[in-house]
Amino acid sequence: MTRRSSGPGVDVLGNAVADPTKNVLDVIEAVERRFMDLREADSALHLAQLAHLQQLITLGEVHAEKYRVIEAQRLNAIREVDGNAVARASEVAELRAATLAAQVAASAETLRGQVEAARIQTSAALAQALDPILADLRTLRDWQANSLGGREQVSDRRLDVGQALVIASLLVGVVGLVITMIVVFG
Questions:
Q1: What integer pLDDT is reported at residue 127 of this predicted model?
Q2: ∠ CA 182-184-185 to the nearest 5 degrees?
Q3: 171 contacts 132 by C-beta, under 8 angstroms
Q4: Consecutive 10-residue averages of pLDDT for the chain (186 residues)
């Protein structure tokens, strides 16, 4: 049976074997240095990435501010164009209103002149139409005065004059209506 010893290692001959600890310690130390180098490199990489992210954020903020300024200028330009369009529309509306007012005034003046001319024609036509009627009434009064006499005749004449005035008023109304229709529809 082979025996195992719990002491220092020995070779086949039983001589004490050189302890490899120095060699192992050198390798472990080299590995630890490499791990430390890797940790430092990883830490430097993280710091560089963090600095890069901060630069990107700062750059994004700068660009966002520039974009806000440009967008505000664009919106202001649109508002200015809209304001100018409203002002122009208002000017056009005022011009149209003034033109329409001038046309209405001219039309009203023309209509006044036409109404005045129609009134004069109507007055002349009415006078021309009433002259024979009034002459006939005078003739009728004269005939009554010659054929009848006294006071009864005066009251009858007043009645006849009242009737004549009603007939004359009726004729004036009809002639006025006809002339109005001619002016309006003619």
A1: 76
A2: 70
A3: no
A4: 64 75 85 95 96 95 94 94 92 93 90 86 78 79 72 52 78 85 80
Residue in the structure block whose two tokens are 């003046």: 109
Neighbours of 83 (CB within 10 A): 10
Amino acid letter for position 175: V
Query: What are the phi and psi torsion angles at 16 (to 5°)?
Result: -70, 135
Residue from 122, 153, 124, 126 nearest 140 by CA: 153
Residue 116 confidence (pLDDT): 86
CA dihedral (74, 80, 81, 82) positive or negative? positive
What are the distances in angstroms from CA 96 to CA 91, 93, 110, 124, 180?
9, 5, 21, 41, 32
Interacting residues of 115 by C-beta distance below 8 A, sequence separation 6+: 183
Residues 6+ apart with CB under 8 A from 167: 133
Report the 10 Å Cβ neighbour count for 122.
Answer: 19
User: Hey, how many other C-beta atoms are within 10 angstroms of the C-beta on 115?
Assistant: 13
The helix/strand/coil state of 92 is helix
- Kindly report each contact of residues 24-30 with a partner whose C-beta sits within 8 Å and lies 24 or more positions away, as own/partner: none
Q: Checking phi first, is residue 150 left (phi over 0); if not, alpha (psi -120 to 50) or beta?
A: left
What is the structure's pLDDT at 30?
94
Residue 168 structure tokens? 């004359």
SS3 44: helix
